[in-house]
Fold this sequence. Notes:
By secondary structure, the protein is an alpha+beta fold. The protein is 52% helix and 8% strand.
Amino acid sequence: MYRLLSATPSPYARKVRVALLEKGVPFELVTEIPWHDGALTETLNPLQKLPVLIPDEGEPVYESSLILEVLELCHPDPPLFPIDPVARLQARRFEVLGDGICDAVVLILLERMRAADKQSAPWLARQMRKVQGGLAELARLAPPRPPLVGDRFGLADIAVGCTLGYLGLRLPELDWQATHPALVPLHEAWEARPSFAETVPVRQPIDAAVVI
């Protein structure tokens, strides 16, 4: 039995939740706000980031990509990572693009939390270019229907699906559906899966003044 430290909007934690559900691995979901003093994240992850997977025995595992590797090793059925090395690298490429987009979105959100007169327009523009560039590359690489790699749902689908869901929550004004319509049927297919339907991201209050 695992415990999973998670935040409700986090695309990184959602990746792990989806993987656990797809593999049928039982876990206890522990939702917290890592920004708050005294959060468990501070004591279990030296980087103070979510998600953190806590086994009954052994060390906590942090960083979503590493957690997914551990789950694949410890719970290989059903497999979410391609066996073929070339296909595995293709799947990882999709994950890197998805995580990179989400990283840029987080930086945009943090900059927007600053007072309007202290926000850096060039910084925001740079992060938005990352988001748009990542989306364009996903649209270029993606097949017309899932799965993204090989012949079965896996790592690439989880990573990109969680990324698109996060964009809908955080940057709805971006309207990626209009600029990259080829990604829409993929997104709809993933969101129809029970593992995605059960993990829809929602905003989480940090304090009385901020919701992120």
